[in-house]
Every structure is written in structure tokens, then in C-alpha cells.
Amino acid sequence: ETSLTSLRWILLDLAQNQDVQELVYKEVSTVAGEQNLVTLSDLPQLVFTQAAMMESLRLHPVVPLGVPHGATKDLVIEGYHIPAGTMLIPLIAEVHHDTSHWTAPDEYRPHRFIDPSTNQIRRHSSFMPFQTGRRACPGEDHARMVMLLYLTQILLHYKMILPGDYAKYFPNEDTTIKQSNQYSNDEKIFDAANSTTNSDKNNSNINQQDNSEIKQKCDNIQIRS
Fold first, then answer.
1. Residue 5 burial (CB count, 10 A)
2. What's the Cα-to-Cα distance from 36 to each of 14, 24, 29, 221, rounded to whole Å?
3. Where are the residues of the annotated region Disordered (predicted)?
4. Which domains does the chain have, with CATH numbers?
5. Which distant-in-sequence residues (6+ apart) come within 8 Å of 137 by Cβ?
6. Is the pLDDT of residue 217 over 80?
7. Does residue 183 have a pLDDT over 80?
């Protein structure tokens, strides 16, 4: 699910960049106020939080290839002849990491999305995680709202930190990623953190070994007071 995967990348980037996470938390907690709750009407005030989210979407587009388009007529673009009827596929990930469009594109810099003169979100024509053109994702606005609401509620109650061996979560270009049980274990972290009142019901599904693993991994999630 694209929104869920994007949210995981956002949380991972914040865990790796603690200074950014604290700035986001301060903004979110200020907007949330005494109710400790962010609503839809509050989202426009979360400028830096939006910028942090957008930077993660730029770095890690979950749909790296765009929706196929077709050339309706013969074209010549930068010396390349494209006959009518040719299928065209936007390379979203390539555009997001193109040095001709972004300064230091491989670095995590949320401030690139903030206009310093207005302190508002700055739009980039080269930012297209929801695709581009008339066939762009129709659910973009909904996805942005959902991710922001979930993100704010998580950060209001938890501080994301990485385990000591976090380097294994950031494979280099020569690494082949294989499916493992690590993903399901990470899911149990959040289940355990939020299911203390349902422990009796969960005991039938989680054995003692799983519980010890969960406890060890939960040490990497700090509950905010």
C-alpha cells in the first residue's frame, strides 16, 4: 500500500535525522496544543512537517516509474526522434535524484521545500511522487492528508530512534534485498506497544521467544511523556 510504505520511509528518515525529528515534533506539539491532537484544519500550519514528508517522498518514491503515456505525434526531444505511438514512461526516481533539478539530491534536506521569503511550502516542477500530467494520482490530496495525520499522531506519542546496527537497514547499491522475517517483527513492535490491555488474547499467538524479541526491539522506540 503506497501511503503506508511512504509513511514507513518518512519515519525511517526521521529516525536517522534526529535534529529534523525534533523540529517536526516541536511544530506538531505546538499546533496540537493542550488537546494533543492534530486535525485536518491544522495541517496548513505544519509547514516544516510537510517539508520533511515531501523530502522523504522525493528520496524514496514508492512508484519509481510513472504511468505510461503515448506520443500522439512525431517528436524530437534533445536530438532524439520519438515516432508517434511510442510508449513514454516517466522515470520518477531518476528525476528526483537529478543534479540538474536538485542541489545535493541524495541528501535529506527538508528545507529545500520551504520558501525562505514566505516560510511556506515551495512547489517544484520536478517533484512528482504522485506522477505527472493528466494521469497523475487522483488520490494525491487524500494521501497527503492521511499520511500527515498518521505521522503527527505517531510523533506526538513516540520518538523514533534506530537500533545500534542500523546500517543494515540502509543497503548500498551492491546489496540485493531479500525477503526476511524482519518486516513482520517490526510490525509486532507497534502491536506490542499498543496492545497491553489485550495481552491475554495475544498470548495464544505470541510465544515467549517472540515476546523477548519484541521487548528488545521496543527499546528502540521511546514513548514521549
1. 12
2. 20, 14, 7, 19
3. 193-212
4. 1-170+215-224 (1.10.630.10)
5. 130, 131, 143
6. no
7. no
Q: Which residue has the higher pLDDT, 197 or 151?
A: 151
Annotated binding site for heme: 137
pLDDT at 74: 96
What pLDDT is attached to residue 225? 55
* Terminal Cα distance for the chain, rounded: 31
Q: Which residues are annotated as a binding site?
A: 137
176 or 133: which leads in pLDDT: 133
Cα–Cα distance list, 99 to 1, 5, 126, 174 (Å): 29, 25, 11, 22
What's the chain's average pLDDT?
Answer: 80
pLDDT band at 214 (very low <50, low <70, confident <90, very high): very low
pLDDT in tens, 28-50: 999 999 889 999 999 999 999 99
Distance, C-alpha 189 to centroid of its chain:
19
